[in-house]
């Protein structure tokens, strides 16, 4: 069995810590066994390692999340969408990758799940069982559903044909999206399951679907023609048209940490970052990524979240509505993690003449490097404020350390490697200060040095 983990989302429900490049699964607000902060995706990957599923897993994601995944997990297998087109295209591309690049058999069982469920390890042992029930049932699709613990209005439901008996799995009659409380109680009486977004199919099922649609089944070609895939969810494109669907019940702990009120329930501390909360502020959480302190006096049942992208103050029950509010905000992500480290936008000014000035603080981690690159629409001034390393400008290499100031003209070829964590204040000046104005020449430091005249 192969696992495809879906990593997507625009990062609105946990604003301001999440944004278009740092979705909820990358927020380091949970704690591992040693008390260190970890993200949801780091937690899930460590669980996959614990149950020996990591070597069978790939992550399907968008371009904007690749470096974040590399930063947090290392070089794990990824399938990268050329553009965001919803879950059916992402899963179809992953299927083509497994078939044409990895050489998987059409009879191989593929299980798909979100990259960020908050579960115990038993959840993944249950996922393994999807392979057996799919074979035994001869179903088109095998789902996994969580046995509800209360009549939730937040989740979708898998409704069985009849009340569950002592069989391993149930036959699915239909699905019900987020009911009201009375409807949810009726669904519980029918032994309906929470839909946790986990399902399995044989690889040939999707490959044949692509053939029927006249689409390529070779990964490289499908990637080139990705815009031909319908922009639609897997549920609407595949699940609703399947002839036979079964579901495997899971009775363990499961939670979707998609909103601030649910996420804070699983956080070990009420204060993350620089914050103070008065004793009469009950069930109040502060999550602060800024250098300035945040203090709360006499306010209970609230969340205060602060990041370079903004500040949110919300009642916990109201927190799921944050997406409605911040959809009106249009700005570039102000904090991003990359494969080499991170950067934070400190200031962005647009001049009357059309020019812009953007100031960043960035960190290149020990042993990592920026690509050898040029910019066509901006010049840069770097001030090294911490650490030491090597810097290359137009094929000339030199040592750099705290206190050095570097001028990088428009079109100049440049890169830096950290021998010790390097922090830089970078001031960009130009007509269009966007990430797309990066022409990458070489990526690895060995490759860069090999192709430069070292002086």
Automatic annotation (TrEMBL):
Residues 4-267 form the Nucleotidyl transferase domain. InterPro entries: Man6P_isomerase-2_C, ManC/GMP-like_b-helix, Mannose-6P_isomerase_type2, NTP_transferase_dom, Nucleotide-diphossugar_trans, RmlC-like_jellyroll, RmlC_Cupin_sf. Residues 280-328 form the MannoseP isomerase/GMP-like beta-helix domain. GO terms for molecular function: mannose-1-phosphate guanylyltransferase (GTP) activity. It holds the Pfam family ManC_GMP_beta-helix. Residues 338-441 form the Mannose-6-phosphate isomerase type II C-terminal domain. Transmembrane segments: none annotated. It comes from the Bacteria. SUPFAM superfamilies: Nucleotide-diphospho-sugar transferases (SSF53448), RmlC-like cupins (SSF51182). GO terms for biological process: GDP-mannose biosynthetic process; polysaccharide metabolic process. This is Cupin domain-containing protein. It comes from Exobacillus caeni.
């Amino acid at each position: 069995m192969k696992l495809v983990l879906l990593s997507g989302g625009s990062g609105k429900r946990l604003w301001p810590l999440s944004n278009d490049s740092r979705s909820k699964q990358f927020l380091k607000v949970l704690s591992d066994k040693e008390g260190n902060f970890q993200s949801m995706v780091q937690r899930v990957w460590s669980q996959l390692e614990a149950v020996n599923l990591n070597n069978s897993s790939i992550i399907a994601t968008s371009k904007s999340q690749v470096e974040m995944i590399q930063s947090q997990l290392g070089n794990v297998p990824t399938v990268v969408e050329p553009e965001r087109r919803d879950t059916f295209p992402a899963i179809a591309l992953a299927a083509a990758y497994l078939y044409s690049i990895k050489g998987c058999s059409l009879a191989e069982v593929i299980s798909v799940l979100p990259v960020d469920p908050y579960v115990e390890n038993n959840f993944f042992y249950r996922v393994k069982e999807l392979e057996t029930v799919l074979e035994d049932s001869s179903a088109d699709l095998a789902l996994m559903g969580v046995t509800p613990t209360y009549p939730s209005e937040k989740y979708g439901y898998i409704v069985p044909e009849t009340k569950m008996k002592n069989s391993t799995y149930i036959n699915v009659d239909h699905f019900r999206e987020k009911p009201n409380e009375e409807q949810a109680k009726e669904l519980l009486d029918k032994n309906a399951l929470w839909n946790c977004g986990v399902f399995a199919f044989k690889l040939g099922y999707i490959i044949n679907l692509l053939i029927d649609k006249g689409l390529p089944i070779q990964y490289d070609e499908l990637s080139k023609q990705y815009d031909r895939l319908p922009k639609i969810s897997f549920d609407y494109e595949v699940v609703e048209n399947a002839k036979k669907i079964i579901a495997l019940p899971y009775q363990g702990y499961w939670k979707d940490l998609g909103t601030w009120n649910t996420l804070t329930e699983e956080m070990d501390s009420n204060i993350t970052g620089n914050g103070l909360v008065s004793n009469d502020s009950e069930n109040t959480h502060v999550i602060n990524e800024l250098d300035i302190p945040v203090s709360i006096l006499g306010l209970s049942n609230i969340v205060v979240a602060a990041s370079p992208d903004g500040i949110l103050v919300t009642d916990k029950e109201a927190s799921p509505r944050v997406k409605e509010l911040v959809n009106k905000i249009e700005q570039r992500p102000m904090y991003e993690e990359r494969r080499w480290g991170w950067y934070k936008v400190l200031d962005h000014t647009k001049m009357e003449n059309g020019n812009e000035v953007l100031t960043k603080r960035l960190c290149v981690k020990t042993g990592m490097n920026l690509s050898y690159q040029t910019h066509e629409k901006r010049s840069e001034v770097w001030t090294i404020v911490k650490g030491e390393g090597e810097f290359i400008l137009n094929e000339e290499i030199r040592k750099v350390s705290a206190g050095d100031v570097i001028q990088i003209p428009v079109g100049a070829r440049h890169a830096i490697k950290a021998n010790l964590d390097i922090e830089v204040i970078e001031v960009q000046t130009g007509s269009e200060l966007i990430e797309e104005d990066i022409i990458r020449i070489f990526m690895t430091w060995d490759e860069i040095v090999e192709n430069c005249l070292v002086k």
